[in-house]
Amino acid sequence: MKLIAPSYYQRFRCIAGKCRHSCCKGWEIDIDPVSLERFKSLGVGCISEEGTPHFILKEGDVCPHLKSDGLCQLICDHGEDVLCDICRDHPRFRNFWTGFAEVGLGLSCEEAARIILSEKEPLRLVRIGLCDEDGVQISADLGQDGGLSAVEGEGPAFDPAESEPDFPEDEAWLWELRESMLGRAAAMKDPMAARLYEYLVFRHLADALYDGRLEGRIGFIEHAFETVTGLWSGSPDKSFEALAGIARRWSEEIEYNEEKKDALIERFEG
Protein backbone atom coordinates (compact mmCIF):
# COMPACT_ATOMS: atom_id res chain seq x y z
CA MET A 1 0.00 0.00 0.00
CA LYS A 2 0.97 3.61 -0.40
CA LEU A 3 2.10 5.31 2.78
CA ILE A 4 1.03 8.93 3.31
CA ALA A 5 2.33 11.34 5.94
CA PRO A 6 2.39 15.03 6.87
CA SER A 7 5.17 16.88 5.07
CA TYR A 8 7.00 17.36 8.38
CA TYR A 9 6.96 13.67 9.29
CA GLN A 10 10.38 12.68 8.02
CA ARG A 11 12.07 15.46 9.94
CA PHE A 12 11.37 13.59 13.16
CA ARG A 13 14.27 11.98 14.98
CA CYS A 14 14.22 10.80 18.59
CA ILE A 15 16.33 13.24 20.62
CA ALA A 16 17.16 10.48 23.14
CA GLY A 17 19.23 11.83 26.02
CA LYS A 18 18.21 15.43 25.27
CA CYS A 19 14.54 14.66 25.92
CA ARG A 20 13.21 16.07 29.18
CA HIS A 21 10.12 13.83 29.16
CA SER A 22 11.41 10.42 28.11
CA CYS A 23 8.89 7.89 26.81
CA CYS A 24 11.00 5.34 28.76
CA LYS A 25 9.36 6.65 31.94
CA GLY A 26 5.77 6.30 33.10
CA TRP A 27 4.64 3.84 30.41
CA GLU A 28 4.12 0.09 30.48
CA ILE A 29 6.39 -1.33 27.78
CA ASP A 30 4.95 -4.46 26.16
CA ILE A 31 7.20 -6.78 24.17
CA ASP A 32 6.08 -8.36 20.89
CA PRO A 33 6.76 -12.12 20.35
CA VAL A 34 9.59 -11.71 17.83
CA SER A 35 11.40 -9.21 20.04
CA LEU A 36 10.89 -11.44 23.08
CA GLU A 37 12.77 -14.27 21.40
CA ARG A 38 15.50 -11.86 20.32
CA PHE A 39 15.86 -10.53 23.86
CA LYS A 40 16.07 -14.08 25.23
CA SER A 41 18.84 -14.97 22.79
CA LEU A 42 20.77 -11.88 23.87
CA GLY A 43 20.25 -12.52 27.56
CA VAL A 44 18.29 -9.31 28.11
CA GLY A 45 16.96 -9.21 31.67
CA CYS A 46 14.13 -7.54 33.59
CA ILE A 47 11.40 -9.17 31.50
CA SER A 48 8.13 -10.57 32.82
CA GLU A 49 6.20 -13.11 30.73
CA GLU A 50 3.11 -13.02 32.92
CA GLY A 51 0.19 -11.96 30.74
CA THR A 52 1.52 -9.84 27.88
CA PRO A 53 5.35 -9.96 28.05
CA HIS A 54 6.74 -6.66 29.27
CA PHE A 55 9.75 -5.04 30.91
CA ILE A 56 9.71 -4.97 34.70
CA LEU A 57 9.85 -1.25 35.46
CA LYS A 58 12.07 0.19 38.16
CA GLU A 59 10.93 2.52 40.91
CA GLY A 60 9.17 5.52 39.42
CA ASP A 61 7.91 3.41 36.48
CA VAL A 62 11.23 3.73 34.68
CA CYS A 63 12.40 1.25 32.02
CA PRO A 64 15.14 -0.91 33.53
CA HIS A 65 17.29 -0.30 30.46
CA LEU A 66 17.20 3.50 30.64
CA LYS A 67 20.63 4.85 31.54
CA SER A 68 21.24 7.87 33.78
CA ASP A 69 22.23 9.92 30.72
CA GLY A 70 18.83 9.29 29.11
CA LEU A 71 20.12 6.78 26.57
CA CYS A 72 18.91 3.20 26.09
CA GLN A 73 21.35 0.54 27.26
CA LEU A 74 19.95 -1.93 24.72
CA ILE A 75 20.66 0.44 21.82
CA CYS A 76 24.11 1.22 23.20
CA ASP A 77 24.90 -2.51 23.39
CA HIS A 78 23.17 -3.85 20.29
CA GLY A 79 22.07 -0.98 18.03
CA GLU A 80 18.60 0.39 17.23
CA ASP A 81 17.47 -2.79 15.45
CA VAL A 82 17.29 -4.56 18.82
CA LEU A 83 14.26 -2.53 19.96
CA CYS A 84 10.85 -4.11 20.38
CA ASP A 85 8.03 -2.86 18.16
CA ILE A 86 6.48 -0.43 20.63
CA CYS A 87 9.81 1.29 21.37
CA ARG A 88 10.76 1.47 17.72
CA ASP A 89 7.39 2.81 16.64
CA HIS A 90 6.58 5.42 19.28
CA PRO A 91 5.30 8.15 18.85
CA ARG A 92 3.77 7.12 15.52
CA PHE A 93 0.09 6.40 14.87
CA ARG A 94 -1.68 5.21 11.74
CA ASN A 95 -4.95 5.68 9.86
CA PHE A 96 -6.08 3.07 7.35
CA TRP A 97 -8.09 3.78 4.21
CA THR A 98 -8.78 1.62 1.19
CA GLY A 99 -5.56 1.37 -0.82
CA PHE A 100 -3.33 3.44 1.46
CA ALA A 101 -2.33 4.14 5.03
CA GLU A 102 -1.42 7.35 6.82
CA VAL A 103 1.26 7.69 9.48
CA GLY A 104 1.62 10.59 11.88
CA LEU A 105 3.41 11.66 15.05
CA GLY A 106 1.75 11.72 18.47
CA LEU A 107 1.67 14.93 20.49
CA SER A 108 2.77 13.23 23.72
CA CYS A 109 6.34 13.16 22.42
CA GLU A 110 8.33 16.30 23.24
CA GLU A 111 10.13 16.45 19.89
CA ALA A 112 7.01 15.56 17.90
CA ALA A 113 5.07 18.32 19.68
CA ARG A 114 7.82 20.81 18.82
CA ILE A 115 7.75 19.84 15.14
CA ILE A 116 3.95 19.79 14.83
CA LEU A 117 3.19 23.00 16.70
CA SER A 118 6.02 25.07 15.21
CA GLU A 119 4.86 24.54 11.62
CA LYS A 120 3.80 27.79 9.94
CA GLU A 121 2.02 26.31 6.92
CA PRO A 122 -1.25 24.30 6.83
CA LEU A 123 -1.08 20.51 7.00
CA ARG A 124 0.10 18.98 3.73
CA LEU A 125 0.01 15.24 3.10
CA VAL A 126 2.66 13.68 0.86
CA ARG A 127 3.50 10.19 -0.31
CA ILE A 128 6.57 8.85 1.46
CA GLY A 129 6.71 5.27 0.17
CA LEU A 130 5.09 1.88 0.45
CA CYS A 131 3.98 0.04 3.58
CA ASP A 132 2.79 -3.39 4.63
CA GLU A 133 -0.74 -4.16 5.83
CA ASP A 134 0.17 -2.90 9.30
CA GLY A 135 1.22 0.49 7.95
CA VAL A 136 4.93 -0.14 8.53
CA GLN A 137 7.08 1.44 5.84
CA ILE A 138 8.87 -1.09 3.63
CA SER A 139 10.07 1.14 0.82
CA ALA A 140 10.76 4.80 0.11
CA ASP A 141 10.37 4.33 -3.64
CA LEU A 142 6.94 4.54 -5.25
CA GLY A 143 8.32 3.59 -8.64
CA GLN A 144 6.65 4.66 -11.85
CA ASP A 145 3.45 6.17 -10.47
CA GLY A 146 4.87 9.47 -9.37
CA GLY A 147 8.34 9.07 -7.92
CA LEU A 148 9.29 10.45 -4.57
CA SER A 149 11.43 13.11 -2.95
CA ALA A 150 9.87 13.13 0.52
CA VAL A 151 13.02 12.78 2.62
CA GLU A 152 12.79 16.51 3.29
CA GLY A 153 9.00 16.57 3.16
CA GLU A 154 8.88 17.25 -0.58
CA GLY A 155 6.60 15.48 -3.00
CA PRO A 156 3.13 15.87 -4.50
CA ALA A 157 0.19 16.53 -2.21
CA PHE A 158 -1.90 13.38 -1.89
CA ASP A 159 -5.49 13.26 -3.08
CA PRO A 160 -7.17 9.82 -3.01
CA ALA A 161 -9.76 10.94 -5.52
CA GLU A 162 -6.95 11.25 -8.07
CA SER A 163 -4.79 8.26 -7.14
CA GLU A 164 -7.35 5.75 -5.80
CA PRO A 165 -10.05 5.20 -8.46
CA ASP A 166 -11.84 2.65 -6.27
CA PHE A 167 -12.00 4.92 -3.22
CA PRO A 168 -15.30 3.88 -1.53
CA GLU A 169 -18.07 6.46 -1.26
CA ASP A 170 -18.27 6.32 2.54
CA GLU A 171 -14.54 6.93 2.80
CA ALA A 172 -14.69 9.72 0.22
CA TRP A 173 -17.43 11.36 2.29
CA LEU A 174 -15.35 11.17 5.48
CA TRP A 175 -12.28 12.44 3.63
CA GLU A 176 -14.24 15.45 2.40
CA LEU A 177 -15.49 16.10 5.94
CA ARG A 178 -11.94 15.98 7.20
CA GLU A 179 -10.79 18.34 4.46
CA SER A 180 -13.55 20.75 5.49
CA MET A 181 -12.44 20.63 9.13
CA LEU A 182 -8.82 21.12 8.10
CA GLY A 183 -9.95 24.13 6.09
CA ARG A 184 -11.24 25.64 9.32
CA ALA A 185 -7.75 25.34 10.76
CA ALA A 186 -6.19 26.96 7.70
CA ALA A 187 -8.35 30.03 8.33
CA MET A 188 -7.21 30.46 11.94
CA LYS A 189 -5.04 33.49 12.66
CA ASP A 190 -2.95 31.75 15.31
CA PRO A 191 -0.60 29.25 13.57
CA MET A 192 -0.02 27.26 16.74
CA ALA A 193 -3.75 26.83 17.39
CA ALA A 194 -4.23 25.91 13.73
CA ARG A 195 -1.57 23.20 13.93
CA LEU A 196 -3.16 21.82 17.10
CA TYR A 197 -6.60 21.59 15.47
CA GLU A 198 -5.14 19.99 12.34
CA TYR A 199 -3.34 17.43 14.44
CA LEU A 200 -6.49 16.49 16.35
CA VAL A 201 -8.54 16.12 13.17
CA PHE A 202 -5.83 14.13 11.39
CA ARG A 203 -5.27 11.90 14.39
CA HIS A 204 -8.79 11.10 15.51
CA LEU A 205 -11.39 11.47 12.75
CA ALA A 206 -10.37 8.61 10.43
CA ASP A 207 -10.98 5.92 13.07
CA ALA A 208 -14.70 6.61 12.67
CA LEU A 209 -14.39 4.35 9.61
CA TYR A 210 -13.94 1.41 11.96
CA ASP A 211 -15.80 2.23 15.15
CA GLY A 212 -18.67 4.29 13.67
CA ARG A 213 -18.28 6.89 16.44
CA LEU A 214 -18.19 9.91 14.15
CA GLU A 215 -20.26 12.24 16.34
CA GLY A 216 -18.30 11.26 19.43
CA ARG A 217 -14.97 11.74 17.69
CA ILE A 218 -15.91 15.17 16.39
CA GLY A 219 -17.02 16.11 19.90
CA PHE A 220 -13.73 14.83 21.32
CA ILE A 221 -11.73 16.86 18.78
CA GLU A 222 -13.61 20.06 19.56
CA HIS A 223 -13.44 19.49 23.32
CA ALA A 224 -9.72 18.74 23.17
CA PHE A 225 -9.05 21.87 21.12
CA GLU A 226 -11.02 24.07 23.50
CA THR A 227 -9.34 22.47 26.54
CA VAL A 228 -5.77 22.93 25.33
CA THR A 229 -6.26 26.43 23.92
CA GLY A 230 -8.03 27.37 27.17
CA LEU A 231 -5.01 26.18 29.12
CA TRP A 232 -2.81 28.21 26.78
CA SER A 233 -4.88 31.32 27.43
CA GLY A 234 -4.60 30.88 31.17
CA SER A 235 -0.87 30.21 31.17
CA PRO A 236 1.26 33.09 32.52
CA ASP A 237 4.13 31.83 30.36
CA LYS A 238 3.30 32.35 26.68
CA SER A 239 6.61 31.06 25.33
CA PHE A 240 6.44 28.36 22.66
CA GLU A 241 8.16 25.89 24.98
CA ALA A 242 5.59 26.43 27.74
CA LEU A 243 2.56 26.15 25.43
CA ALA A 244 3.96 23.09 23.64
CA GLY A 245 4.54 21.54 27.05
CA ILE A 246 0.89 22.09 27.98
CA ALA A 247 -0.24 20.34 24.79
CA ARG A 248 2.20 17.49 25.36
CA ARG A 249 0.97 16.94 28.92
CA TRP A 250 -2.67 16.97 27.80
CA SER A 251 -1.85 14.36 25.17
CA GLU A 252 -0.02 12.16 27.66
CA GLU A 253 -2.75 12.40 30.31
CA ILE A 254 -5.86 12.24 28.09
CA GLU A 255 -5.13 11.28 24.50
CA TYR A 256 -2.84 8.38 25.43
CA ASN A 257 -5.09 7.18 28.24
CA GLU A 258 -7.55 4.91 26.46
CA GLU A 259 -10.07 4.90 29.31
CA LYS A 260 -10.20 8.69 29.56
CA LYS A 261 -10.27 9.15 25.79
CA ASP A 262 -13.04 6.61 25.28
CA ALA A 263 -15.08 8.16 28.09
CA LEU A 264 -14.90 11.55 26.38
CA ILE A 265 -15.82 10.10 22.99
CA GLU A 266 -18.80 8.34 24.58
CA ARG A 267 -19.82 11.57 26.29
CA PHE A 268 -20.26 13.28 22.92
CA GLU A 269 -22.06 10.41 21.18
CA GLY A 270 -25.71 10.95 20.39
Overview of this structure, please?
This protein has 270 residues and is α+β, with helices and mostly antiparallel strands. It has 2 domains: 2-13 and 90-267, no CATH class; 24-88, no CATH class. Helices cover 43% and strands 11% of the residues. Helix 6 runs antiparallel to helix 7 and helix 9 (214-234) crosses helix 11. It starts with a strand and ends with a helix. Residues 143-153 have low confidence and may be disordered.
Give the gist of this structure.
This protein has 270 residues and is of the alpha+beta class. It has helices at 33-42, 73-78, 85-89, 110-118, 160-163, 169-186, 191-204, 208-211, 214-234, 240-255, 258-267, and strands at residues 2-6, 47-48, 54-55, 92-97, 100-105, 125-131, 137-139.
Structural topology:
Layout: E1 2-6, H1 33-42, E2 47-48, E3 54-55, H2 73-78, H3 85-89, E4 92-97, E5 100-105, H4 110-118, E6 125-131, E7 137-139, H5 160-163, H6 169-186, H7 191-204, H8 208-211, H9 214-234, H10 240-255, H11 258-267
Parallel strand pairs: 1-5
Antiparallel strand pairs: 1-6, 2-3, 4-5, 6-7
Number of helices: 11
Q: Kindly estimate the percentage of residues that lie in beta strands according to DSSP.
A: 5-15%
Helicity level, as a percent range?
A: 40-55%
> Low-confidence segments, ≥5 residues, pLDDT <50?
143-153
How many domains, in number, for the residues?
A: 2
Can you write the helix and strand succession as a string?
EHEEHHEEHEEHHHHHHH
Spatial strand sequence of the major β-sheet: 4-5-1-6-7
State Rg: 19 Å
Mean pLDDT: 92
Q: Given the C-alpha coordinates, what overall shape results?
A: globular
Count of individual beta strands: 7
Largest beta sheet, briefly? 5 strands, mixed
Measured between the Cα atoms of the first and last residue, the distance is 35 Å
| Classification by helices and strands | alpha+beta
